[in-house]
# Entry
Amino acid sequence: MQENEKPSRPTLEQLGEFGLIKHLTQGFQLSHKSTLKAIGDDAAIIDPESHEIVVTTDLLVEGVHFDLSYMPLKHLGYKAVIVNLSDVYAMNVQATQITMSIAVSNRFGLDALEAFYDGVKAACDLYKVDLVGGDTTSSTKGMLISVTAIGMSKASKIVKRSGAKPNDLLVVSGDIGGAYLGLQVLEREKEVFKVNPNNQPDLEPYTYIVERQLKPEARKDIIELLEQLEVQPTAMIDISDGLSSEILHLCEQSEVGCNLFEDKIPLDPTVINAAEEFKMDSTLIALSGGEDYELLFTIDQSDYPKIKANPNLTVIGHMTEAREGAHLVTRADTKIPLQAQGWNSFGGKN
Ligand code: ADP
Ligand code: MG
# Structure
């Protein structure tokens, strides 16, 4: 063999199902003592040590939830983990374990699956979660991914959607709207590419929003921050569908109303510029865009001094009595009822 020649790679058939699982999962480290048994038995064993357990799962389908023509597989593996961790963090709980199940058609080779698992591993390493199992099977068409995430916590720390009270402050982490606009940029470049495959897109001005779409992060750090600040949110949710639908979930489950102030919604300058370019209203994007994976929560007013100086947290409104309803208070000081708009309101996909 030549020095720089790669050793021939086994095919999926040659590896077989067990060989493949072993190959893909061998580099994963375990970091939680609650993980008593991970991959390799009929089931994993987890020791909750008198904590309560939170469990969440998501199913992602190619062509519905992701598009491999602009989503590199490594990013997809990363994002599949992140979106589940975000749901655990939205309970104010640190995630400890995940399982990862995949179905792939014969269009995917070993390189593709390795790239996907590189992304899964990067997320597991960065967020300190143990991969404890999964399932691997074939599909007739496309790729399906199912991730289950587990976290554990003292019962008193867990935050549901249902605990907000009138006069509580509504707080959001980071900034929003970027992921949706990142998707618009990628969709536009895909269309340009179809017409002229030699055209090299200049994505530089859009780095932040494209990353928000392709490589989102979950706010593990905010859970740590709230603990440090000794703030126990009264209700919490993560922003996967857009600010307005998440606010409405909090309102409905907590039986309260809300005033959201348009001028307080945190937007990155890149979001404002790209919204202008796409002739879209940046507030509407923040309200309906989705996939930002920021945390939205309510706190008692007495906790305000603890969070007010923090650049990661923005107070965007307050809760009211249920009968007052949920409203956006615009810059012009008019009140508009909040609606749960999805992608459709932009004529986008769903
Ligand atoms: P079973 O026949 O009991 O379903 P499998 O052969 O599917 O067992 O899995 C063997 C081990 O590998 C189990 O611990 C399972 O959780 C794990 N596993 C299977 N597929 C994956 C995967 N895609 N990612 C991570 N772990 C996996
Ligand atoms: Mg199995």
Q: What stands out?
A: The chain has a mean pLDDT of 93. The first strand starts at residue 35 and ends at 37.
